[in-house]
Amino acid sequence: METALEATGLTRSFSGIRAVDDVSLSIPAGGVVGLIGANGAGKTTFVNIVTGYLRPDSGTVTCGTRDITGLGPRRIRRLGVSRSFQIPQLFLELTVFENLLLAVRVAGTNRGGFLHPLRPANDARAQAEVDRMIGRFRLEPYRAQPVGEVPGGIRKLLDVAMATVDHPQVLLLDEPTSGVAAKEKFGFMDLVMDALSEERAAVLFVEHDMEIVRRYADRLIVFHEGRVLLDDTPEHVLADADVRRFVTGAKA
Ligand SMILES: Nc1ncnc2c1ncn2[C@@H]1O[C@H](COP(=O)(O)OP(=O)(O)OP(=O)(O)O)[C@@H](O)[C@H]1O
């Protein structure tokens, strides 16, 4: 199967502590992979390295056949690896439409070269891409509302939509359901996963909610103290004694 993203031997220390320690993993094109682990296991550090927010001390990251190790976040975004954040990074005074337009400009793979993110909204292609995302993520009712006035769940959805503009090959979602009301989490994930599947993006999502990983991941990777403890089907991983002991806290 074609590989969308591959990390090999990634290592990163902070003050002598190995937050990510010789991690190798791959995400197949179109795959949906969950990443779990206790607090401090290195999940966010891994996502930050892959998306260019942190440099690794050693190791490589490739997207398709392209080596993206150590490139900056914008460059990596343009090469097809995108992310959302645990706490959405949005402009609260701007509308949903305007936030998406900024995301399209920043993603800026746009055939004509780089567009300044704050240029007036006058190019048809960018607006068409925004309209496509508004439809894909069912954001039409909120289109003209300032983001500061929309519900938290809609902000999370908008954050994922902003990460999805311009056809990324791989999306890394950092705790997509944190901040989403418990009764809305499945509806939220159904919408997100359907949209990402339609976009044919591979997904790696960091998640603490085991109901969510069981339902949406077709493979699960477990981090423990910066290393890959297990990489298998959700069924096998969630039944594993070490995973129960170190991560999920469930009794064997
Ligand atoms: N910028 C930093 N400076 C110093 N230490 C850091 C930094 N970022 C992460 N760490 C440390 O690296 C280790 C891994 O942290 P990381 O945030 O990647 O874990 P995590 O699995 O994402 O945890 P959580 O589930 O709580 O978000 C922790 O010991 C953390 O304290």
From TrEMBL:
One Pfam family from the record: ABC_tran
Species, as recorded: Paralimibaculum aggregatum
PANTHER family: AMINO ACID ABC TRANSPORTER ATP-BINDING PROTEIN, CONSERVED COMPONENT OF ABC TRANSPORTER FOR NATURAL AMINO ACIDS-RELATED
GO molecular function, one term: ATP binding
Keywords, sorted A to Z: ATP-binding, Nucleotide-binding, Transport
UniProt entry tagged with the keyword Chaperone: no
Coiled-coil segments: none
Protein name: ABC transporter ATP-binding protein
UniProt domain ABC transporter: residue ranges: 5-250
InterPro entries: AAA+_ATPase (IPR003593), ABC_AA/LPS_Transport (IPR051120), ABC_transporter-like_ATP-bd (IPR003439), P-loop_NTPase (IPR027417)
SUPFAM superfamilies, A to Z: P-loop containing nucleoside triphosphate hydrolases
Superkingdom of origin organism: Bacteria
